[in-house]
Specification:
It contains ten helices and seven strands. By secondary structure, it is α/β, with parallel strands linked by helices. Bound molecules: uridine-5'-diphosphate and magnesium ion (MG). Magnesium ion (MG) binds next to loops. The site of uridine-5'-diphosphate has 17 residues, from β1 and α3.
């Protein structure tokens, strides 16, 4: 099979028939063999009935129905599990992404050798309250992930080589960072294609402005996991040791200072009356705790099922 199209959706009943008809038009014009996997993320409207009707009328339609709303990432994860096509395309259900882009995306994966091609909504039809924070978001994501050629991490329209989706695990709200996940898994031929974008025709957006706060925290998590996830001691142990040493040296200085004054008959005060003593003590305690955090982190990492999971590309 050439193409699997995965469409995560939550309450998009009006858009689905139109979207599917459009996909069908593009697919048969290009003679692709394909499947469309609709992942119904616990919709409370008629979306699932619509999918069932589409499925009755066409053999290309597959569906997954969640019992409740889990979010876009879990929906993509289950779609990825089920996908069989050589190239896997994800797109939003709200008709903001255009199926007309699919043939070119397919070509970029199969002929240009990309592992992943992300859409770039260069000209967006979204409110300003969304486009401005998005610019900031993408700049941060580029800097942290080191994928400098992507302008639009969160574009719903993306194409993947099948290997990619079978070897990454999207969870939580990590769908915003799939290129970063792919890069961490060793798929670094990541490309971009300018895509047409439309204003939402039916229904309303499912993500509020808190997407930017959560998105930022998720980015920190990913960065931390990919940098120190398997070796937490390297950061916590390092910081802890340094802090402990600083505190220890400071205590020695405070003590030596008092002895010096005593010896020379200068006026002196109790060590416990010096504010430096308390600063030094706190530093030592914090240092010990950081060190312990690192050590406990290492113990957890030792037990992780992921600890020996590697991306082996080939064996002969
Ligand atoms: N979506 C989903 N589960 C959710 C929220 C959204 O499957 O919990 C789907 C939604 O139906 C749409 C896609 O994810 O197909 C993108 O959502 P939306 O268009 O609301 O996001 P925006 O375009 O505003 O970024
Ligand atoms: Mg949308």
């Amino acid at each position: 099979m050439d193409i699997s199209i995965i469409v995560p959706l939550y309450n998009e009943e009006e858009s689905l028939p139109e979207l599917y008809a459009w996909i069908q038009r593009v697919m048969s014009a290009n003679n692709f063999t394909y499947e469309v996997i609709f992942v119904n993320d616990g919709s409370t409207d008629r979306s699932w009935q619509v999918i069932e009707e589409l499925q009755k009328a066409s053999e290309h339609v597959k569906g997954i129905k969640f019992r409740r709303n889990y979010g876009k990432s879990p929906a993509l994860y289950c779609g990825f599990e089920k996908a069989q096509g050589d190239v896997v395309i994800t797109m939003d259900a709200d008709l903001q992404d255009s199926p007309d882009e699919i043939p070119e995306l397919y070509r970029m994966i199969t002929e240009d050798g990309y592992d992943l091609v992300s859409g770039w909504k260069q000209k967006r039809y979204d409110p300003l309250s969304k486009t401005i924070p998005t610019k900031l978001f993408n700049a941060t994501a580029r800097a942290v992930s080191g994928i400098h050629n992507l302008h639009d991490f969160n574009c719903g329209l993306k194409a993947y080589r099948r290997d990619v989706v079978k070897n990454i695990e999207v969870y939580g709200e990590m769908h915003r960072y799939i290129p970063y996940l792919a890069k961490n898994a060793g798929f670094n031929r990541i490309g971009e294609k300018v895509v047409h974008h439309q204003a939402r025709k039916y229904g309303k957006t499912k993500f509020g402005l808190n997407r930017f706060v959560n998105g930022y925290l998720d980015l920190l998590t990913l960065w931390f996991l990919s940098t120190f996830g398997v070796k937490p001691m390297h950061i916590f142990g390092f910081l802890g040791s340094i802090m402990f040493m600083l505190g220890f040296i400071a205590v020695i200085i405070v003590g030596a200072d008092k002895l010096y004054d005593m010896y020379h008959g200068n006026p002196y005060r109790l060590i416990t009356e010096s504010p430096y003593f308390y600063l030094a003590l706190t530093t030592m305690i914090l240092g010990t705790q950081l060190f312990l955090a690192g050590f406990i982190g290492e113990l957890i990492a030792r037990n992780s099922v992921e600890r020996n999971k590697y991306q082996i590309e080939k064996e002969i």
